[in-house]
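Justification of computing resources. Each target in the renewal requires a structure prediction run like the one illustrated here; the chain below, 101 residues long, is used simply to show the kind of job we budget for.
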Amino acid sequence: MQVNISGHHVEVTEALNDYVGQKLDRLERHFDQIGNVQITLSVEKQRQKAEASLNIKGAQIHADSEHDDLYAAIDMMADKLDRQLLKHKEKTVDRMHGNSR
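Resulting structure tokens:
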């Protein structure tokens, strides 16, 4: 998985980089076919924002979140990505087994 983290009005420190990396490791455990991930961390007025787009086989997943604390915004963004990945994985498994709900 290739990760690209950029900052908009915020410096991407090593601590932020490591934190995002830890969150993405969890995603990779659930879904191992993640190609590349684009993360953008930004600050607008008092809001901290984390956005992510990730490319997986057959789809692109996007999630974003805002919070007063950038680390909390990263947590919420990672949770959204995780839910979307699991949902995509279920759909893929259903299609492979010919099940419909």
